[in-house]
Amino acid sequence: MQTWVYYAILSTLTGGAALVFAKMGMKQANEHLALTIRTGVLFFIVVMNAWIAGGFKDAKAIPQKALFWFVLAGVSTAVYWIFFFKAMKTANVSVVSTIDKGSILITFLLSYLLLNEPITPKLLIGAALIITGTVILIK
Asked: Exposed, middle or buried, 39 (CB in 10 Å: 0-12/13-18/19+)?
């Protein structure tokens, strides 16, 4: 297997665990505080990872266009997590998380439109299955 596959699998495992851990904590705290604490810890770990890996050495040379896209991604992520934690506070995390995976369809569309990535038959079948599962859970 290629290295990126291992990273993707580890991302899936840790992401799924993180959602359950957050839901467990929200039994005793509101979603706003939960998201703030989670994001603070996340920020600290990400900064330490970048520092240890030498990721800050090129910070002054970052192009304005790249900075724009990173800021846009940051704003989008913040809004995403606010809505996600609001939904997760009052619903089953398993259902919210599954519906949330419908965001993959947005990724397919934007990666095609903005990055010129191909949409293959395999991706279309996967997208159809995701849409079907999302509709089943919403109803």
From this structure: middle
The pair of structure tokens assigned to 13 is 């495992």
- d(CA 86, CA 99) in angstroms, rounded, equals 14
Helix (H) or strand (E) holding 72: helix 64-90
Q: Rounded to whole angstroms, how far apart are CA atoms 93 and 15?
A: 12
Give the helix ranges, DSSP H, for 91-120: 93-100, 103-115
Q: What's the rounded Cα separation, in Å, for the pair 80 and 121?
A: 29
Out of 17-26, 45-54, 102-111, pick the least confident: 102-111
Q: In which band, very low, low, confident or very high, does the pLDDT at 127 lie, cut at 50, 70 and 90?
A: confident
3-class SS string, 2-24: CHHHHHHHHHHHHHHHHHHHHHH
Give the closest residue to 105 by CA, choosing from 119, 89, 92.
Answer: 119
Residue 26 structure tokens: 């929200």
pTM recorded for the entire structure:
0.82
